[in-house]
């Protein structure tokens, strides 16, 4: 069993990562850390077995993050903290010799991600650093990617459509760091990176990769700033064009769909349905987090991250998303 600590005690840590760790056959949850004792206490009370608690406030000897990272029985950590806080904690954990699974996005922007990944790759024999993207492990998306590959043919076009509305009562909106985001894109970065990962996975199954975009970002709902909507045309390296619409500001329209059209047929994906040339298969909703954490746990045996969890894979999601946010109607290359 691998001793692991959960760094973060927010909504996603509570609802997804805690159950995923406890479901993993070879992980043993030993500790939880958060900035406040109150949030640590709340999450620890939900754990199936007793865990040690670490926090910054109130300050207490032996209870800091550094104290947790100094423990030899903790071999790995899962980092589920606000976007702007993650890089520093990732560095600390890796420097302490801990294997890391950090939540998406890999960083708040491409520049920060490049620096962090460059630092990591400069290390000699570092521990495993994997970056989470749970959409890549949902059963429906895995099946859709398989269907695209089996369908074959040349890609003709594609689209990503995500419509939704973040209500004032939304549990995620009511976390302070999301209400006043200190990073680009607001919910388009925090949530939109999932949908970009889904599109990239399906296009990759057809041997395609988006190389440039031309987009317009806008703000439909003032409290969801800096922007909540983007419309774009995307072009692959082979010259195939498709469209992207993502919005968190349409109160009266919702839905998520990625579609890839080839010369042999069409694959359409939503979270609970995959349609291959008009033949549909239904799926139960799954976040993919349990599968994602299980894959990370397995990767610790070989000390090699799953290809879908490398920092570079997460970097490509972020790079794509940042290009959409920065294009302003001009063609923006995705290096």
Please explain how this structure is put together:
With 335 residues, this protein is an alpha/beta fold. It folds into two domains: 2-134 and 290-309, 3-Layer(aba) Sandwich (Rossmann fold), CATH 3.40.50; 136-285 and 317-333, Dihydrodipicolinate Reductase, domain 2 (2-Layer Sandwich), CATH 3.30.360. It is 34% helix and 27% strand. The chain has helices spanning 11-23, 37-44, 65-69, 86-95, 110-121, 139-151, 176-179, 187-190, 192-205, 289-302, 311-326; strands spanning 2-7, 27-36, 52-57, 76-79, 99-102, 129-131, 155-163, 210-218, 229-236, 241-247, 255-262, 265-270, 273-276, 279-282, 331-333. The strands form two sheets. It has a nine-stranded mixed beta sheet. α5 packs antiparallel against α11. The mean pLDDT is 97. InterPro entries: Gfo/Idh/MocA-like_OxRdtase_C, Gfo/Idh/MocA-like_OxRdtase_N, NAD(P)-bd_dom_sf. GO terms for molecular function: nucleotide binding; oxidoreductase activity. Residues 153-327 form the Gfo/Idh/MocA-like oxidoreductase C-terminal domain. It comes from Coniochaeta ligniaria NRRL 30616.
User: DSSP helix count?
Assistant: 11
How are the strands ordered across the major sheet? Answer: 14-13-12-11-7-10-9-8-15
Which term fits the overall shape? globular
SSE string, helix = H, strand = E?
A: EHEHEHEHEHEHEHHHEEEEEEEHHE
Stretches where pLDDT falls below 50 for ≥5 residues?
none
